[in-house]
Design goal:
Elements: E1 8-15, H1 22-35, E2 39-48, H2 55-61, E3 70-78, H3 84-91, H4 99-114, E4 123-132, H5 143-146, E5 154-157, H6 164-177, E6 182-188, H7 195-204, E7 209-213, H8 223-236, H9 252-280, E8 298-304, E9 307-312, E10 329-333, H10 336-339, H11 348-360, H12 372-384, E11 393-397, H13 400-420, H14 422-431, E12 437-442, H15 451-455, E13 472-475, E14 479-483, E15 486-491, H16 493-496, E16 502-505, H17 509-512, H18 515-518, H19 522-538, E17 546-552, E18 556-557, E19 563-564, H20 567-579, E20 598-601, H21 616-619, E21 625-628, E22 640-644, H22 646-650, H23 671-687, H24 691-702, H25 719-726, E23 731-737, E24 740-745, H26 756-761, E25 785-787, E26 789-791, E27 794-798, H27 805-824
Parallel strand pairs: 1-4, 1-5, 2-3, 2-4, 5-6, 6-7, 10-25, 12-13, 12-17, 17-20, 20-21
Antiparallel strand pairs: 8-9, 9-10, 11-22, 14-15, 15-16, 18-19, 21-22, 23-24, 24-27, 26-27
GO molecular function: adenosylmethionine-8-amino-7-oxononanoate transaminase activity; dethiobiotin synthase activity; pyridoxal phosphate binding
Keywords: Aminotransferase, Transferase
Protein name: PLP-dependent transferase
Amino acid sequence: MSLLFKHLRVHQIFGANTDVGKTILTSALVRASALKNNNVFYLKPVSTGPLDSADDKHVKRFGGRAAHRIRTECLFQYDEPISPHLAAQTKGAAPPPSDETLVNAIAGYISRSAKGASLEAPGHIYIETAGGVHSPTLSGTTQVEAYRPLFLPTILIGDSKLGGISTTIASYEALLLRGYIIDAVLLFNDSYYRNNEYLHAYFAERGIQVAAVPPPPPLSADTLANRLATEQYYDTLVPAAKRGADDGAVGISDIVDHLDVCHTRRLDELASMPRRTLDTVWWPFVQHGLMVDDSDVTVIDSAHSDFFSIHRAPATSSPVPRTGTSILSPEFDGSASWWTQTFGHASTALTLAAARASGRYGHVMFPQATHLPALHLAERLVKEGPGKGWAARAFISDNGSTGMEVAIKMALRAFTMRRRGEEQVIRKIKRGEKEVFGVLGLKGSYHGDTIGAMDACEESGVYTCEWHDAKGYWFDPPIVAMRNGEAVISVPAALAGQSTEKVVKVESVSWTYDVARRLDSELASVYRNYITDTLGSLSTNQDVPTLAALVLEPLVLGAGGMIFVDPLFQRILIDVVRSGGIIGLPSLGPDSWSGLPVVFDEVFVGLYRLGLESTGPLLGVLPDISVNAKILTGGLVPLAVTLASEAVFDAFLGTGKGGALLHGHSYTAHAVGCEVAGETMRIVDRLKESEGWNEAKGMWGAHPTTQEDASKVWSFWDPGFVESVSRMAEVEEVMTLGCVLAVKIKDNGGGYVSHSAQEVFGKLKDCVGSMDDMGSVAPGGAPYGIHFRTLGNVAYFMTSLNTKGDVIRSVEDRIWRTLMNRQAK
């Protein structure tokens, strides 16, 4: 969370190395700020070494004639002159303060300091870190990582000694890779090494102000003489203009003015962004006719872990915020940024993976070529990942919708080749003859916004356009949910053979997903008979095109309303389709598909979004084609992979170009995306064994509504919380798996076009708590709001794969209290 105030400028100071003069130059900045009539706050979060020579004491001692305006503080002080993580370990038996404790303490200090700031008495804060950018904090995390949640504008103290050019640039790049705003670089002017000359030109190309000042006088054995010399030294660090210089030199006072300009520029830009956005941007899925006020625009200034740092312009009727209130506030990313986030935002591991591939390859052509990121990813997904046991090939494309376009092309060709034979199909292709095919699927499905993916979904009036031509047939599926504290399956009226839906109570949520145990149940027979009869009647229906593929979102229909489909229904649908007796074609061998090729759209549900790497093992059947995206690259860059069986691949295998899969994009298998995906898979493999996952599975294994084998299905959301919410007066039903929580609001049939979910949960966006109580789970401990998305009468909330348990519990509490408050009214 970035703390940003109108009349309080905050900068943190990193050093390119130890012993680069960080405290000397920070003292000069503090002194210059105070001389400009600012109230100045200096914070040393962690200090090691003799207490009488501590940095905060030095800053206060040499405050000059404006010392009365300077306040100094140190949060964690150790008298051992060693690395902070070692000093904390040797201090006592208690564990060292965590990064969260350190960050919250710094944020608390900034917030307390901000209370006294005003137009008449503006303030400056300088936060001086210890050692170099990668020096460890008390917990052992490097500083550049530990301080990142605060996202404070940065001053880098460069290294003027031999090798200092390298350490300074390396430190700058380490900060840049983590998104820091670097407003200035300061260093001493060493007349022999002259690093400042090289660095001035280097940073000028990057638009960063550099100041090189004379080094301090040598230390004297005489304490009094040393203090007088130091005092005189600070007096000389005045603006170059006052010395009459005409060489463009920049002094400390100039840097203070520059930092003020940077601060004002950032404030002005944040204030102008909403209107500029409304004037130039065309958003997806937004009716711009309803977006008329600047307060309708959420400006995301930065993001880290599971939180945005946002600026939202106040509505015209809102009271003017207090001067000491940050204009930025944290907001929990409750939609995982449209289902993409895997480890939260700004993952350094993924950033470095992207840089690694970008530096090595940039983007390179892929057809008839290969590179290690793409090859490693294909091998991982085919041989060890979701394709293990059935997939033979990986087609790497741009995004989920594109991946589904590829999958549909694969399936239709496989069907036509089996039906017509290679020679006839190729002849038709050459002649431009087209045969209309359709797909079999479920109502509420969504496979992306490209035309082919849209045509594979039922006409709904929501995801449509003038070219949309729905081709196929879609079953109305039975739905799994929690209602009034009980697990139920809602069977549609047509399927149940009655005028209204039938609600069937079941043993538990976990029991519902034990598909193998349910295959011989009475409900299984109902499903099988209904599907068989329906497909039989479709075969003679002239209004339905020839069905050439079964296309499913397994387990959960995402954009269609977070519909948790009864897995038994999907399993039996696949079994019936593959039987070949009612629809489609027989198998040509044990490794070939039969009936219709089966496509799993796992763009949303795959790679552990639902707690499962792939849905096939739970359903007890494997697809012929599947698509993965979203989680695949951790939310950093777009990429999709379409996996296919050997039999599907063989449908395109031949000697003529016309028979090949003629589909591709300029950025097919781009190396950056493939490298990031590979890194994502490696991190996920570690997370599967993590304490957080084991705790979540333990909750599910112990609760009455879910107790069974938690290795099959489980969720990061507490089953007790889910049961409690399902009993709320305004809630029709609630359901969860893995990262996903969906709450359906009672709205008398409004459904997808309803605003009921938004009305019920709208208050969640408000920051709850006081800045005086910096004790929340958000970065810096500040009060936070919750960003969430609605699908008509359904509100959904989503975690990352590594969201901390205390964050989820806090969000659960906010959801529960919101519903309770409405119930009380």
